[in-house]
Amino acid sequence: AKIEAGRIDLSLQTGNYSDFLLRNVKLNRILASKRNIKIHLQAPMNIYNISFDRMKLDQVLNNLISNAVKFSPDGNSITVSVFDDGLHLITCIADNGKGISDQEIPNLFTPFYKSSEKAYSKERSTGLGLFIAKQIILAHKGKIWVDSTPGSGSAFYFSLPLNRMGNENVPENEK
């Protein structure tokens, strides 16, 4: 109810996003290995120290990565990558799975929406994961979006703002 009302309380802490991401990917690799799916991480280890809510971003990453696993065939791979566009830190979770039709994309981040595509795994969906992920990212003053081609996979992106005003968001090698 709080999330639907747009009231998300964040517990922001400044931390190394690469370390956080590496820990999350390691945990998700364990689940993906059950279907022989590899998760590759492409993130510089000198990534910015940014302010974020660790528990809430864990929830976002777990949802996006588990969806990528769910809609990827056994033995496939998923890539988690991070890059900086100068204003935002952008995280991408890309798979080579079923992909999403153009007609479904506008509905993906709405509550209780379930894709017409059947998952490769037998996991059930509530239709809330992407909606909750969007609300969490919006609370961080970021954006979330998807690029997808049916039959060729999907790439889910989310951005987190960088504040270049202070020293806390400067890469370690630039201080």
As laid out across the biggest beta sheet, the strand order is 2-4-5-7-6
Could you say which overall geometry the principal axes of the C-alpha atoms support?
globular
Share of residues in helices: 25-40%
On the 0-100 scale, what is the average pLDDT?
Answer: 85
Structural class based on helices, strands and sheet pairing: alpha+beta
Unreliable parts: 164-175
Please count the beta strands (DSSP E, at least 2 residues each): 7
H/E element sequence: EHEEHEEHEE
Count helical runs.
3
Described by strand count, sense and barrel closure, the largest sheet is: 5 strands, mixed
- Sheet-strand content, in percent, reads 25-35%
- Report the span from N to C terminus: 42 Å
Radius of gyration: 16 Å
In short:
With 175 residues, the protein is α+β, with helices and mostly antiparallel strands. The chain has three helices and seven strands, in the order E-H-E-E-H-E-E-H-E-E.
List keywords for this structure.
five-stranded mixed β-sheet; 3 helices; single chain; 175 residues; 26% helix; alpha+beta
Your description of this structure?
The structure is a single chain. This protein has 175 residues and is an alpha+beta fold. Helices cover 26% and strands 26% of the residues. The chain contains three helices and seven strands. The strands form two sheets. A five-stranded mixed sheet has the order 2-4-5-7-6. Strands 1-3 form a two-stranded antiparallel ribbon. A hairpin with a 3-residue loop joins β6 and β7. α2 packs antiparallel against α3. It is globular, with a radius of gyration of 16 Å. The termini are far apart. The C terminus is likely disordered.
